[in-house]
Amino acid sequence: ASTASTTVRNQSFSVINSDDINYFKKILGESGVVQDEEKLDDANTDWMRKQKGSSKLMLQPKSTQEVSQILDYCNSRCLAVVPQGGNTGLVGGSVPVFDEASGILVCEAGCILENLISYLDNEGFIMPLDLGAKGSCQIGGNVSTNAGGLRLIRYGSLHGSVLGLEAVLANGTVLDMLGTLRKDNTGYDLKHLFIGSEGSLGIVTKVSILTPPKLASVNLAFLACKDYTSCQKVLSQAKRNLGEILSAFEFLDINAMDLVLKHLDGLRDPLPSSTHNFYILIETTGSMESHDKEKLEAFLLQVMESGLVTDGVLSQDINQASSFWRIREGIPEALMKAGAVYKYDLSLPPEKMYDLVVEMRGRLGTEANVVAYGHLGDGNLHLNISAQQYNDSILSKIEPFVYEWTSKQRGSISAEHGLGLMKANKIHYSKSAETVQLMASIKKLLDPKGILNPYKVLPTSLLSHS
Ligand code: FAD
Ligand code: 2HG
Ligand code: ZN
């Protein structure tokens, strides 16, 4: 049971006692019941080191059956449970089976994303998602947060790629929805409730996922633009001219670039001849090298001749490509090294996106460094505000302004990271009252005592449990 320091503990939850611990040891063995303070401290601290839980016990079940027994017991004792995967979330077991003919991977929720990527690589396939935290995040966590990442523009969201899953409800009931069919319109497709519900409705224990074939030709271009409007125009042209081979379209502004070059070791500016205001990464993935190269080169010529792109370089080998990716994927780490960071993950109409960044800079002046980057191809801005220290003056200039601004544009206050603890009480900026009420009813139906991930996702005011 974990609560952030600022959250008032719900008194209806029980406190763990020695009988509970003995029961868990009986079903999981000594090694599955962790009370070691250092390990608990790690698990109680989020990646951003902003939220601190106070859980006294970590359980490490190895099978669906064990998850089910744990939840059944916790539900009857009213013990709160926080599902945790790789603990890389930003808002506050592992036996893969693969069918080569269909490209469908069935695996346990505890598989680390990078291990799945390597496993599939040997089989000639790829995962339909990739993100900077791949070395530690787990597929169960990815599905539970509906993680987007770097290739969503090509492969779509996990609501499309996940074909089935197994989940355990709060009372221990195991829901077998582990289908591997592309089409199955037999009633409500309940797996979607668990994709992106951040552990608030059940624990995902297994996943089946459609994986695209690995294609022979992957190219990566690192480009510079003088202004944001040019970035947007490059995006429209890339969609039109590179359409079927486009596999990533990411952007970063000069503040993000400066931060990465300052805080991460071994990285060089790929376009050092002059300074640029904006950078774009364009990746193409296709089946025929000569065709893809010809297309990409013609596209680059066009955007450079028209002045939309002021400088650019095509990666010459895999090492150069990974150093380009390292610049983009390393931004969250660089921000952590720079000091305190206020993180906002917004979906906005692309033409309005950077106006918010400019307004935010006007509000904050020299008090903080406003850093912008993200999945421009998906209309997803990562607005990060970096400061020496957290302080109320900065926060009051950011919030509620950032949420109100986003809401006015009918944007989303969480494009891909979820609501967690940080934004549970902010959901109304993006969802209507009726919608949130229905969500609360679903939560009550599936988890009547509210033991699963309390204080997260939905406003606490709506979650008075029996
Ligand atoms: P955790 O952090 O352990 O948990 C996240 C949430 O899911 C929690 O609410 C938890 O209770 C719940 N949960 C975890 N496992 C389960 C389960 N088996 N069943 C039910 N609930 C569960 N996110 C993106 O969308 N796109 C990105 O590009 C991206 N890049 C990132 C880069 C870095 C460097 C970092 C640190 C994070 C990034 N993230 C990104 C955020 C994060 O990595 C993802 O949200 C990831 O999917 C979380 O997986 P996890 O296993 O670490 O989950
Ligand atoms: C990314 O795209 C992640 O790098 C993290 O989603 C975003 O740190 C962030 O703001
Ligand atoms: Zn992201």
UniProtKB/TrEMBL annotation:
Necessary cofactors: FAD
Keywords of this entry: FAD, Flavoprotein, Oxidoreductase
Flavoprotein found in the keyword field: yes
Domain annotation FAD-binding PCMH-type: ranges: 16-214
The family this protein is said to belong to: Belongs to the FAD-binding oxidoreductase/transferase type 4 family.
Protein's name in the database: FAD-binding PCMH-type domain-containing protein
Taxonomic source organism: Penstemon davidsonii
Positions spanned in the full protein: 88 to 553 of 553
